[in-house]
């Protein structure tokens, strides 16, 4: 039973970490890429853009932290 618990725990942590990676892409990579390519509808570098990126990246860091905490419950 402990192997099943461990695998389910790892799957949950992996899923949360994948969502965290998606948040980094949405909030960090996408605005920077849009700015660097000069996309017409891209937001200009402003306090709002920086706050947008900071919120998404902070949320990603929180999700990653939760995933790490979940992994601490692995059984020996």
Spans of at least 5 consecutive residues whose pLDDT stays below 50 are none
The count of β-strands is: 0
Helix content: over 70%
Q: Structural class from helices and strands?
A: mainly alpha
N-to-C order of helices and strands: HH
| End-to-end C-alpha gap | 11 Å
What's the average pLDDT?
Answer: 89
Largest sheet: none
* Tally of separate domains: 1
Q: Which strand-content bin applies to the residues?
A: under 5%
Shape: elongated
Question: How large is the radius of gyration?
Answer: 17 Å
Number of helices: 2
What do you see in this structure?
With 76 residues, the protein is mostly helical. The chain has one domain (6-71). It contains 2 helices and no strands. The longest helix is centred in the N-terminal third of the chain and has 36 residues, at 2-37. The protein is elongated and about 55 Å long. It comes from Methylorubrum populi (strain ATCC BAA-705 / NCIMB 13946 / BJ001) (Methylobacterium populi). Keywords: Membrane, Transmembrane, Transmembrane helix.
